[in-house]
Write a structure and sequence with these properties.
Elements: E1 16-22, H1 26-31, E2 35-41, E3 54-57, E4 60-61, E5 67-73, E6 78-82, E7 85-89, E8 93-100, H2 108-125, E9 130-139, E10 144-145, E11 148-149, H3 150-165, E12 175-181, E13 186-193, E14 198-200, E15 225-229, E16 235-242, E17 245-246, E18 249-250, H4 256-275, E19 284-292, H5 298-306, E20 315-319, E21 321-322, E22 329-337
Parallel strand pairs: 2-3, 9-12, 19-20
Antiparallel strand pairs: 1-5, 2-5, 4-20, 6-7, 7-8, 8-13, 9-13, 10-11, 12-21, 14-15, 15-16, 16-22, 17-18, 19-22
Bound molecules: 3-(2-carboxyethyl)benzoic acid.
3-(2-carboxyethyl)benzoic acid (3EB) binds near residues 222 and 323.
């Protein structure tokens, strides 16, 4: 089951690791030892299961099968629920998940504000106050409501909650992905820890939290990546959704392959920046998730990616809408760096 990771040594010193499984039943996956969480992607995924470690994301898999992203823990797992937030954790890391209907009258910004405020309060109360990484999914991402695109309304609510809660905003911002789904409601899940991670920005892109006004009244509040050194000295790099953006501008309109090529240049630059923090143990990519706006681009994008040696890691292709309407593809990932072997 662990064979999808590139090597045994990268697991050293890490409180969890992640694999993608397909063609399996989620009940069997949950019954295995050391399962921290199971995130299902696909159409036939059963939405309601009586296990807090399991949740589904309403995006179509482009893998001809449902995909499960499985988080494994080497130490004991505890899970529970506080109000409408489910959580699962081990000694070092906590995953929290919340899915809510949107407020009818108030719009997506107030729903987002409430969700983030509650998530931050809950992870703090559990003793994991630092949110390292967040995933956000909601429908009709480009639809305008009261003159504001829903993605921008989302950004406004998130900004308000994070500026209220983080004393050193924007330094402690989590890495993030925001993807448009076909299902209703707002789903947010996040990874939190007892000690902070370190923000690593991309030298080819201006920080999203300093984007100019044209991208919305409140800038997207996320870090390009977060570097986390775990207690046993293994390191993770959580890489935000990365797209064909240089500076703050979208590049290669209408050309999905050129967008992916630019995205991979951005990812390479980001890894290089992260490696400056850990020169003795450079990061290696462990997993990628590729969000494709148009189903018809999936084959050409998969073909292009498969020819890039450096990016030859387990990858999942999903169909979803990306925050800027001109973006056709976005890539997020996880990189790992081995701990010092004692
Ligand atoms: C970008 O770089 C593309 O609002 O949290 C990527 C990842 C994007 C996360 C977010 C937005 C977010 O601006 C869009």
């Amino acid at each position: 089951m662990f064979s999808t990771l590139p090597g045994v040594e990268v697991r050293q010193g890490l409180p969890f690791h992640i694999a993608y499984l397909k063609g399996v039943h989620c009940a069997d996956v949950l019954a295995a030892e050391g399962v921290l969480a199971v995130i299902g992607f696909g159409n036939s995924f059963p939405a309601s299961e009586d296990d807090r470690r399991l949740w589904g994301v309403g995006l179509s898999s482009l893998e001809n099968d449902d995909i499960f992203e499985v988080w494994y823990s080497d130490t004991s797992v505890r899970c529970g629920c506080v109000a409408d937030i489910a959580y699962t954790c081990n000694d070092e890391a906590l995953l929290a998940q919340i899915g809510v209907d949107e407020d009818r009258g108030n719009g997506l910004d107030s729903t987002t504000y409430r969700v983030y405020r509650d998530l931050l309060a809950m992870t703090r109360a559990q003793g994991y106050p630092y949110i390292l990484r967040a995933w956000n999914y909601f429908s009709n991402i480009h639809l305008e409501h009261d003159g504001l695109e829903r993605y921008k309304a989302f950004c406004r609510g998130r900004y308000r909650a994070l500026t209220e809660a983080l004393s050193d905003f924007p330094v402690q911002l989590p890495a993030a992905s925001v993807i448009g789904t076909q299902t209703s409601g707002l789903l947010v899940y996040c990874l939190a820890a007892k000690q902070p991670g370190k923000q690593v920005e991309n030298p080819r892109q201006i920080s999203a939290y300093t984007y100019p006004q044209q991208y919305g009244p409140r800038s997207p509040s996320f870090s390009r990546s977060v570097l986390k050194s775990w207690t046993a000295q293994g390191q993770h790099l959580y890489i935000s959704g990365t797209a064909s953006i240089v500076g703050h501008r979208t590049r290669h309109l209408q050309d999905p392959v050129a967008q992916l090529r630019e995205t991979l240049v951005n990812l390479t630059a980001l890894l290089k920046a992260a490696n400056q923090h850990t020169p003795a143990y450079p990061f290696r990519l462990a997993l990628l998730k590729v969000y494709v706006r148009r189903r018809r681009d999936a084959d050409v994008l998969r073909d292009f990616l498969s020819k890039q040696q450096v990016f030859a890691v387990p990858v999942v292709f999903l169909q979803g809408d990306i925050c800027r309407s001109e973006l056709l593809v976005e890539v997020e990932g996880l990189a790992v760096s081995a701990a010092a072997v004692s």
